[in-house]
Amino acid sequence: MPTLTAPWPAPVATRPLDATVLVPGSKSLTNRTLPLAALAVEPTRITGALVSRDADLMIGALRALGTGIEAYDGGTTLVVTPAVLRGPAEVDCGLAGTVMRFIPPIAALADGPVRLDGDAGARVRPMGPVLRGLAALGVPVTGADPATGEPVDDPSFLPLTVHGTGRVLGGEVEIDASGSSQFVSALLLAAPRFEAGLTLHHVGEVLPSQPHIDMTIAALRERGVNVDDAAPGKWRVEPGPISGGDVVIEPDLSNAGPFLAAALAVGGTVRVPNWPTATTQPGALLPGLLERLGATTALADGVLSVTGTHAVRPVDVDLSAAGELAPTIAALAALADGESRLRGIAHIRGHETDRLAALVTEIRRLGGSAEETEDGLIIRGGGLHGADVETYHDHRMATFAAVVGLAVEGVRVVNVATTAKTLPDFTAMWADLLGPSGRA
Ligand SMILES: O=C(O)C1=C[C@@H](OP(=O)(O)O)[C@@H](O)[C@H](O)C1
Ligand SMILES: C=C(OP(=O)(O)O)C(=O)O
């Protein structure tokens, strides 16, 4: 999408923060609950759903396949009525990993071809393991060269067409999910509808984002599906009905990240209500991470409070379980007093943009020092100055820049509207964080 507006001047905090931030629903939970509801044997009522571009794209994809979805309460309540999945259909995946990876196995259950495409940035995000997994299950997938439209054998990227026949036999499949946990989640989510279910083996060296795989398994079990995950890197999903009913979506803890990080960046306290006591969201790791970076945290009556003193400690952390937190942790590392190391996140080169390259380029543009390693980043904190930070259509690059901008004069964020991917109200929420005048 073109960038038409002027860069957004990130507000600078002039005094310690004292804010409570209500964070909207989880992208990952919303975009699992919707497809499971479409595959269910009865309607599902979802409350607390995220209203954002990624959720809209998932709703659009499932509607294109025939699912009934009614929205209420500004879109935060969704009533999903499953129907026979049908093709032909066209699906716009935008830049949503959850849509481009989760929809193909669902499209395999449709009774006709389903063509998927997305933003230019989506066409370079890896999908091969999901597509090869489907091919191994007997579901043909054809690709097309985006420039010429010529057919591509063995497609690994959008655009592509899944040729469903209305049924998938299922069985046993091996994939390499070292590039994204979403390859595993995608196949597991649709598997109860495969006639023989699915036994899935991961054969790669690393498996990122284990909490997101646990989230998929928990979502399936909550809907009555039998899943065996006792052996590492192996999952068995039994065929069977997926129940509907009422589902309440937790707040998006990863989206809480930049707001909580703000307390460390400039001092003061930021509180996030409705913090779940137990969750599969990787954002659950935030309190521990922020403590290592110098914050004190407390969870009382469901409110997480993070307090900082404006001094940020460097860290050496393995973020393989929570790669989507890397831009937020990188912002704090860039403000820290010393050298930080972020490990275990080679796979975020395949996120909305190559996040390792983007973070290095933008930290350097801000006057800081950063370099890529094989599986992460080395960031030497301090020495920052204002700059126009590029965001590469990546919501988390925009929030990375906003966190830095709280503490550094003259930071402007190019295409801050990219935050609409998961947080359309980001700039208003950020102004509220700073107090009534928008400046703390
Ligand atoms: O399944 C999900 O909802 C997600 C899984 C993770 O993907 P990767 O394993 O590709 O990092 C995460 O980063 C992404 O934001 C959401
Ligand atoms: C990696 C992310 O998104 P996606 O669901 O598009 O993979 C993210 O939100 O950080």
From TrEMBL:
Single GO BP term:
aromatic amino acid family biosynthetic process
Q: Where does 3-phosphoshikimate bind?
A: K27, S28, R32, S180, S181, Q182, S209, E324, H351
Top EC class for this record = transferase
Q: Which GO terms describe its molecular function?
A: 3-phosphoshikimate 1-carboxyvinyltransferase activity
Q: In which pathway does it act?
A: Metabolic intermediate biosynthesis; chorismate biosynthesis; chorismate from D-erythrose 4-phosphate and phosphoenolpyruvate: step 6/7
What CDD domains does the record point to?
EPSP_synthase
**Family of this protein:** Belongs to the EPSP synthase family.
Function, in words:
Catalyzes the transfer of the enolpyruvyl moiety of phosphoenolpyruvate (PEP) to the 5-hydroxyl of shikimate-3-phosphate (S3P) to produce enolpyruvyl shikimate-3-phosphate and inorganic phosphate.
Against NCBIfam families, the record matches this protein to: aroA
Indicate what this protein is called per its UniProt record: 3-phosphoshikimate 1-carboxyvinyltransferase
